[in-house]
């Protein structure tokens, strides 16, 4: 009964390939996020979707394209992978209330290694 | 969102209270203080949040100074499983939150 799940857990691929990471939440939340944690351990937000609508889009190369088929899923597709894309990617979800949201639930992460 | 400053590392003996400080001198009136932690290789985990008043839940207590320029997270009886990086974040609660994680404090609980 995992709250936020990600697949795959590990992803090793060659430069130039295209890959996707999937995220699913079973908490009934309306907002989902993607964060990137680089080798220096800094955790930065990339995207956020609310009810399948993109609402946060940080300065991320357009090789990264999030896709939200429904409220429970937010997938991350990466084209033309580069060495610098190697990182741990975390998905998160929250319920945005009228008065604000107070907790994001994070998935276990996907460790992407680009060779 | 206001910038926060935390010590890079702290140690605490198992069973003792761990007090983690955070400075947020530029916090605005309606920004909340949030604490998350990240245990090695896992996703961040929410701990507690507050605006003005001190808060307590089953995990920790949060003490916010009257001027709201600093706060302290208290783990009352630290265990080895509390070893993690702790992040203090100042953020507006409206809408989807863009949590800005700083370097955090690496807390090591020693047996």
For the biggest sheet of chain B, the summary is: 5 strands, mixed
Q: What amount of the residues of chain B lies in strands? A: over 45%
Structural class of chain A: mainly beta
The low-pLDDT segments of chain B are: none
As a whole number of angstroms, the C-alpha radius of gyration of chain A is 14 Å
The class by helix and strand makeup of chain B works out as mainly beta
Q: What distance separates the N and C termini of chain B?
A: 37 Å
User: Roughly what is the average pLDDT of chain A, rounded to an integer?
Assistant: 91
Based on Cα principal axes, name the global outline of chain A: globular
Order of helices and strands of chain B: EEEEEEEEE
Q: How much is the radius of gyration of chain B in Å?
A: 13 Å
Task: Describe the protein's architecture and organization.
- The complex is a heterodimer of chains A (115) and B (111).
- Chain A is an all-beta fold and 115 residues long.
- Helices cover 0% and strands 55% of the residues of chain A.
- The mean pLDDT of chain A is 91.
- By secondary structure, chain B is mainly β.
- Chain B contains no helices and 9 strands.
- At the A-B interface, strand 4, strand 5, strand 9 and strand 10 of A face strand 3 and strand 4 of B.
Give a brief rundown of this model.
The complex is a heterodimer of chains A (115) and B (111). With 115 residues, chain A is mainly β.
């Amino acid at each position: 009964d995992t709250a936020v799940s990600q697949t795959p857990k590990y992803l090793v691929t060659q430069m130039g390939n295209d890959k996707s990471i999937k995220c699913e939440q079973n908490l009934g939340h309306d907002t989902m996020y993607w964060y990137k944690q680089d080798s220096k351990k800094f955790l930065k937000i990339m995207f956020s979707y609310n009810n399948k609508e993109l609402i946060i889009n940080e300065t991320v190369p357009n090789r990264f394209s999030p896709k939200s088929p429904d409220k429970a899923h937010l997938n991350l597709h990466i084209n033309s992978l580069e060495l610098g894309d190697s990182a741990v990617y975390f998905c998160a979800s929250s319920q945005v209330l009228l008065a604000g949201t107070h907790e994001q639930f994070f998935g276990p992460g996907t460790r992407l290694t680009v060779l | 969102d206001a910038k926060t400053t935390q010590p890079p590392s702290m140690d605490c003996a198992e069973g003792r209270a761990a007090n983690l400080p955070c400075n947020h001198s530029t916090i605005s009136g309606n920004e909340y203080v949030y604490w998350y932690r990240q245990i090695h290789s896992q996703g961040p985990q929410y701990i507690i949040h507050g605006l003005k008043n001190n808060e307590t839940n089953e995990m920790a207590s949060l003490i916010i100074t009257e001027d709201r320029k600093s706060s302290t997270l208290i783990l009352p009886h630290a265990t080895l499983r509390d070893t993690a990086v702790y992040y203090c974040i100042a953020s507006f609660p409206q809408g989807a939150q863009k949590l800005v994680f700083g370097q955090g404090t690496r807390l090591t609980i020693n047996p």
